[in-house]
Amino acid sequence: MIAMLVVQIVLSIILASIFLIRPSVTAGTGWKILAFIGLCALPFLCIVGGMNTHMQRSEQTQFCISCHAMVPYGQSLYVDDPSYLPAQHFQNHRVPADEACYACHADYSIYGPLKDKMRGLTRIYMQYVSSPPNPIRIPGGYQNSQCLHCHLGARSFEENQIHAAVMDSLKSNQMSCLTSGCHDTAHNIAQLSHVKFWRPGQ
Q1: Distance between CA atoms of 100 and 150, rounded to whole angstroms?
Q2: Each residue's pLDDT tens digit, 112-130
Q3: Where are the domains of the chain?
């Protein structure tokens, strides 16, 4: 994908250079078509391809934790304590490790990806122009639908007696998965200096 994008950009530059240096070559019909491709179609494809590449990159864990304010959240994925929910999901590959942040924090509603990207742009703006809030909070709080997207339908989840007893409250978001006393330790970055970390391969 990136190689194709580079080829399109190089070809756009070459064609644009030819037509800007010698506009007289566009007198013929075939050259006019080539000029349209070089000055309009290829740049448009470059923009669309570039946006698509960056959208995919923005879903990567490494992209998320590249901001200074998010570094502790990335470190918390390696906490060696089963009560730390994100760490257990990340370390045991319950979510794709290279998309751990996006997998758990994505809004899975119909316009969710668009809202996620817009929220992400706000975070990038704060990183470079303003300053990120401390602590960082999710607008509207963490919704159970983000957990249920994966867990609903899973036998181990639905046959668990505790989950079965409160399933309606979980589905309606009246009872939070995170603040109900069941899974109340998320990233807990304030305590990172007091915890043991898991080192992969050791």
Answers
A1: 13
A2: 777 887 887 787 787 788 7
A3: 2-57, 71-194
Question: In terms of residues, how long is the chain?
Answer: 202
Indicate the Cα dihedral angle 92, 115, 144, 135, nearest 10°.
80
Q: Nearest to residue 137, comparing CAs of 117, 148, 149, 122?
A: 122
Residue 102: what residue type? Y
Taking only the tens place, the pLDDT of each residue in 2-37 is 777 777 788 888 888 887 888 887 788 888 888 888
pTM of this prediction exceeds 0.85: no
- Contacts of 191-196 with C-beta under 8 Å, sequence gap 24+, read 192/72, 192/75, 192/76, 192/79, 195/79, 195/80, 195/81, 195/84, 196/79, 196/80, 196/81
